[in-house]
Design goal:
The protein is an alpha/beta fold. It has two domains: 49 residues, no CATH class; 214 residues, Rossmann fold. Helix content is 42%, strand content 13%. It is built from eleven helices and six strands. It has a four-stranded parallel beta sheet with strand order 1-6-5-2. A two-stranded antiparallel ribbon has the order 3-4. α5 packs across α7. The protein starts with a helix and ends with a helix. The mean pLDDT is 90. Bound molecules: zinc ion (ZN) (2 copies). The site of one zinc ion has 7 residues, from α2.
C-alpha cells in the first residue's frame, strides 16, 4: 500500500471507529452508555467487576494470597533488574478482551481510559520518578499497528504528572511473541533485542525511571529493559503495567474470585 493511501485508510478507519465506539459515551468494556457515576469510561457495573489487584508480591506485583510471605515463587527463583513492579489489574478475561481490542483491534483511543487507570494507580504509589519511558516496539511493528500501546499510556502519565517522557530504548530485533514461551525461553527471546538510545546518556545518569508496559507476564521483558537502563547508569527502575499475567497463580486467583462472587451474591 502506498504511504498516502495508508494514511488515508488510517484516518478513515479512525473516523469509523469513532462512530462505532464513541469516546466518553459508551463503556469500554460492555458498550453500555456512561453516566455521571462512570469512571475512566467504565460503567458502574463493569467498574465493580474490574479485577483490581490487592494482595500482591511486594517485589513484582503478582497476585498472591494473604497467607503468603509476601514474595512470589517467580521472584524467589529469579533476580530481576527493576526495583519494583506493579500492575493495576489481574490479566483475567475482562482485561484480556479490552487489551486485545486496544492492541490488535486498532482501537487506539483506548489509550486514554486505560492510561487513566494507570494514572490513578500511579497517584497512590509512593515513588518519585524523574523520567517516564515505555517498552519499545520493533519499528516495523509500530508502523503497521500505527502506535505503540505502552508509549501512548506512558505519555499520558508523563503529561498528567509533569514528568519528562523519553524513548530511552529501541527495539532492534523483532523477536517472536513472548506469549507461548516458558520463562527460560522468554529470557533468551529478549536477549539482545533492546538497546539504549545513547543520545540520552547524560539525561539518564543517576535518574529514577518509571517504565511502562501493557502486560507483565514473567518479568523477562521489564527486567531486560531495566538491565539496559541500569547499564546506562540509571539509578532505579520502577515498572508499571496495566495488567499482571496470572500464570501459575491462575487456579488460586479463580478460586478467590469465585468465593468473592458467591459472597457478593
Ligand atoms: Zn460496562
Ligand atoms: Zn514476585
Amino acid at each position: 500500500m502506498k504511504i498516502e493511501t495508508k494514511q488515508k485508510w488510517d484516518e478513515w478507519k479512525e473516523k469509523l471507529l469513532d462512530v462505532l465506539y464513541p469516546r466518553h459515551i459508551k463503556c469500554i468494556f460492555c458498550g453500555e452508555e456512561l453516566n455521571e457515576k462512570s469512571i475512566n469510561d467504565t460503567c458502574e457495573k463493569c467498574f465493580n467487576e474490574l479485577p483490581f489487584l490487592h494482595h500482591v508480591c511486594k517485589r513484582c506485583g503478582a497476585p498472591i494470597r494473604d497467607n503468603n510471605d509476601g514474595v512470589c515463587l517467580n521472584c524467589k527463583e529469579n533476580n530481576f533488574d527493576f526495583s519494583l513492579a506493579r500492575s493495576v489489574f489481574a490479566y483475567d478475561e475482562m482485561i484480556v478482551k479490552v487489551v486485545h481490542k486496544y492492541k490488535y483491534g486498532g482501537m487506539k483511543f483506548l489509550y486514554e481510559p486505560l492510561g487513566d487507570f494507570l494514572c490513578d494507580y500511579f497517584s497512590t504509589w509512593d515513588i518519585a520518578p524523574d523520567i517516564v519511558t515505555a517498552v519499545p516496539l520493533y519499528k516495523a511493528k509500530e508502523k503497521s499497528r500505527g502506535y505503540n500501546q505502552s508509549k501512548l499510556m506512558a505519555k499520558l502519565i508523563a503529561k498528567k504528572f509533569s514528568i519528562p517522557y523519553y524513548d530511552l530504548c529501541v527495539k532492534v530485533k523483532d523477536n517472536v511473541s513472548q506469549t507461548e514461551l516458558d520463562l527460560k525461553k522468554r529470557k533468551q527471546n529478549v536477549k539482545d533485542v533492546y538497546e539504549f538510545d545513547t543520545k540520552y546518556r547524560s539525561i539518564i545518569k543517576d535518574k529514577t525511571i518509571l517504565l511502562i508496559d501493557d502486560v507483565y507476564t514473567t518479568g523477562s521483558t521489564s527486567s531486560e529493559v531495566s538491565r539496559i537502563l541500569k547499564h546506562a547508569k540509571a539509578k532505579e527502575i520502577y515498572v508499571l503495567t496495566l495488567a499482571h499475567g496470572l500464570g501459575d497463580n491462575k487456579l488460586e486467583y479463580d478460586k478467590d474470585k469465585k468465593e468473592k462472587t458467591l459472597k457478593n451474591n
